[in-house]
What we know:
Belongs to the UMP kinase family. The chain has one domain (10-239): 3-Layer(aba) Sandwich (Carbamate kinase), CATH 3.40.1160. By secondary structure, it is α/β, with parallel strands linked by helices.
Amino acid sequence: MDAEKPEYQRVLIKLSGEAFAGDEDYGISPDFLEYISREIKSLYQHGVQIAIVIGGGNIFRGVEGLEIGIDRATGDYMGMLATVINALALQSALERVAQIPTRVLSAIEMRQVAEPYIRRRAIRHLEKGRVVIFAAGTGNPFFSTDTASALRAAEISAQLLIKATKVDGIYTEDPLKNPKAEFIEEITYLEAITRDIRVMDHTAMTMCMENKIPILVLNIKKPGNLLKAVMGQKVGSLVK
Ligand SMILES: Nc1ncnc2c1ncn2[C@@H]1O[C@H](COP(=O)(O)OP(=O)(O)OP(=O)(O)O)[C@@H](O)[C@H]1O
Ligand SMILES: O=c1ccn([C@@H]2O[C@H](COP(=O)(O)O)[C@@H](O)[C@H]2O)c(=O)[nH]1
């Protein structure tokens, strides 16, 4: 284990589903799986307790179902199942590439595939040095995996929620839509909500505010960013 001490001992990482697709628009990229496993290993080697919530945007989002006649709640369940697929892929990669013991805990019971989500069990896994992957979001339709990350971060008393995404941090507007948007290094929860910063949904932001969980938004595609975050080095944008 490295002598350098991390700033945070227990973190929750929200991994965007879209990032799982790598350079494609859909599916799971083997290169990304390998890359993210190595990135996570770098934190793990510093003794950081790591919980992960995975999105499903690379496979299915509930709102997409509406376009093909699938009602919202059913579409949302499909979206939650998509996060389970991503969780299993990540588990397999973490164990194969990084040799890290990993547990998938699902908010929707499917015993043959994953453990059911039980808060105290999740904490026990973390204490035992297992990376915990929370699958199936909150288990409820009409929510998002952003909200699931805020909820799980509060439940496990994570010291930091890292929103690992495709952009460098928070901007005045979505930088993928407006390249002239300006970078914001630090912002309060309330300001992020009132300025309608959409990098994380408002329900998630409010939950973090109420539970005083700082949110760090960073670019997951830049190697070393996750490690910088847990070491307390300057990276991304902070909401607190
Ligand atoms: N003000 C803003 N600053 C930064 N990013 C923003 C802003 N408004 C919108 N975004 C967009 O929010 C996105 C973050 O959401 P992301 O796609 O990572 O997560 P998600 O939608 O929760 O995950 P998934 O891909 O699984 O659906 C960024 O890629 C960015 O394009
Ligand atoms: O608690 C939850 C979490 C997710 N969903 C559905 O899953 C998809 C994928 O999640 P993303 O956050 O968009 O990556 C989401 O669009 C919802 O349809 C849910 O219903 N409840």
